[in-house]
Design a protein that fits this description.
Elements: H1 8-29, E1 48-52, H2 56-59, E2 76-82, E3 89-95, H3 102-125, H4 143-158
Length: 161
């Protein structure tokens, strides 16, 4: 049968087609520097954001930053806008100036994430929610209990276990 590819020829054509599709998708989803939020040249990666189930006027009213974000001072820029699909408010924060080193940038990002999560909890629930595995007295020490204690101690840091 003339014109029909079999075996290695068909696999080669499939590989070329897959590679071409990957290039097209990669080109389509590549971000331009001017697509970031804030100033036209701002990269998106510096912003940290949470969606809060509240009206934008309730989140940031009268020029007062939301709780916990206000504690970070003037070094942190806060932005509030309606979330997509009318699903509450998007609360965003970032450092006004880029950090001087990778370590300080990571530390600042961690601090901002914690402040955003705590602000979200206060706005939605009225308090910062805590995991308290021992509601009454002490529990017997067990290997599983030690894992729960460790996870609870670090849960507020990054939100990842």
């Amino acid at each position: 049968m003339a014109g029909r590819l079999t075996g290695a020829g068909a696999a080669g054509v499939a590989a070329v087609a897959t590679a071409a599709a990957a290039v097209v998708v990669g080109q389509r989803h590549r971000r331009r520097p001017d697509e970031g939020a804030g100033s036209p040249r701002e990269a998106r990666t510096r912003w940290q954001a949470v969606t809060v189930l509240a009206d934008p006027n309730d989140v940031y009213s009268g020029g007062h930053k939301p709780p916990f974000l206000a504690d970070l001072g003037e070094d942190v820029e806060v932005e509030v806008r309606a979330a997509a699909g009318d699903k509450g408010t998007e609360l965003r924060a970032r450092l006004r100036q880029p950090a001087s080193s990778k370590k300080s940038a990571d530390e600042a990002a961690k601090t901002i994430r914690m402040a955003l999560r705590r602000a979200k909890q206060v706005i939605e629930a009225g308090e910062v929610l805590r995991v308290d595995p021992t509601p009454h007295g002490e529990r017997k020490a067990t290997p599983t209990g030690a894992l729960v204690d460790r996870a609870t101690a670090h849960a507020d840091e990054e939100g990842l276990l």
